[in-house]
Write a structure and sequence with these properties.
Number of domains: 1
Number of helices: 10
Oligomer: single chain
Largest sheet: 8 strands, mixed
Strand content: 5-15%
CATH class: Alpha Beta
Structural class: alpha/beta
CATH superfamily: Ribonuclease H-like superfamily/Ribonuclease H
Distance between the termini: 35 Å
Order of helices and strands: HHHEEEHHEHEHEHHHEE
CATH topology: Nucleotidyltransferase, domain 5
Strand order of the largest sheet: 4-3-2-1-5-6-7-8
Length: 340
Amino acid sequence: MALARVSSSSSRLLLLPSSTTSSLLHSFLRPFSTSHFSAPRLSHSRSFPVDASFPQTSPLPSTAREEGEVTEEAPRPTSRRPWKPTCLYYTQGKCTMMDDVSHLEKFNHSLLLDLPVNASAADKAKPQKLDYFLVLDLEGKVEILEFPVVMIDAHSMEFIDSFHRFVRPTGMSEQRIGEYIEGKYGKFGVDRVWHDTAIPFGEVLREFEDWIGGHKLWKQKQGESLNSAAFITCGNWDLKTKVPEQCKVSKLKLPSYFMEWINLKDIYLNFYNRRATGMMTMMRELEIPIVGSHHLGIDDTKNITRVVQRMLADGAVIQITARRHPDTSEVKFLFKNRIR
């Protein structure tokens, strides 16, 4: 199946946000009008051919911290380019300052800068059974607050597109929502962006279905699964537990495209013969620098994607690890050796 590449100048939603400060948000992110640590080598020895594929970024001076930046996780400096946060309004298609030079100088508007791939690295990748991976990392324990997805080509490892929405809870009072968002996103300084852009989960799914449909990954037919694509999550929680729970709260039927997924922890365990408790462990062991803020969903999704790119370059074959029965909702785990 052919699928056109999306350029950085496209009007599509291409980007993953990093971090931004409240002061900078107030100065440069007008709301839209409507409303890296040494680590032991893995037992599965590899030469890590894609080190140059992952740009190492530099933190801002302490006098000018961008919102959401976690200083102890900030990547090391590089001569390639200075790091700058990604516009969180832009990732959702709502940036109104694309003609403002000062805004463009301060904020990143291209995910291609954070997820490049060397051709030599891609040449070492093994054939995959799927054509596309949709990396997903939800945020929100009570209700889903953030739904970020990064789409990459399973063969070339290249970034194709992204989908990002902040999600407004439907089963909470406005006071509880305010407290919930302050506790979750206040520490990153992106609570304002959340309030400006969040929409109910049902609307998020409708927009997401238009997005995957536009990429010819899914057709709106009952029981239809993704077309030669699969979600990749860092654990089973996102699709085994949280999405079904949210669908119940939002009074929605669980969509058919959520019936199977890839738990990257299981792939990591079987490929490297080493257990990883999460994304941070994987990145530390693979010596991949962290970009952005841990637990800001769009940044975590970006970093998980970097792990996926590295594993593909190392020769991993990434395949479905879990499948839900559409009638009984029972989940079958397909790997005997898996993280429990």
